[in-house]
């Protein structure tokens, strides 16, 4: 995770396009400017950044589902629940499943866990639109760096690693 750059997903561990499911990994950094204010002496990942982490995993799932033909933009968060605190150094498993895709919208259910313990979950809505000028290439580059693009071409449900 590079919190200050909003790069929340470190790698994609599993992409099952047929089932509409992704599993990604994110390691919370030991140090970040975010922790200086949230909270001094007791660093915690803000809930909004955990939500963003679920949204990014979900967004990568939607991108893969749509073969990078359209860009998903987060439009809504429903039923978000935060069950435990997340501190520096936590190894997070982020999962998302596609619940709906159609009419220019996609809906996912996403969750984050650590060491098998549920930390948070939410339902997320996205508007899928043509890529804004200049965004397609950087999104493909980022997807490639986390191992998503090779996964699109692999067998459904097979583990994926970094390219």
Short description:
The chain is of the alpha+beta class. It has helices at 33-37, 47-65, 136-145, 148-153; strands at residues 11-16, 21-27, 71-82, 91-102, 105-114, 117-129. The protein has a six-stranded antiparallel sheet with strand order 1-2-4-5-6-3.
Give the tags.
37% strand, Thiol Ester Dehydrase, Chain A, 25% helix, six-stranded antiparallel sheet, 163 residues, alpha+beta
Structure description:
The protein is of the alpha+beta class. The protein has one domain: Thiol Ester Dehydrase, Chain A (Roll), CATH 3.10.129. Helix content is 25%, strand content 37%. It is built from 4 helices and 6 strands; from the N terminus they run E-E-H-H-E-E-E-E-H-H. It has helices spanning 33-37, 47-65, 136-145, 148-153; strands at 11-16, 21-27, 71-82, 91-102, 105-114, 117-129. A 6-stranded antiparallel sheet has the order 1-2-4-5-6-3. Pfam families: FabA (PF07977). This is Beta-hydroxyacyl-ACP dehydratase.
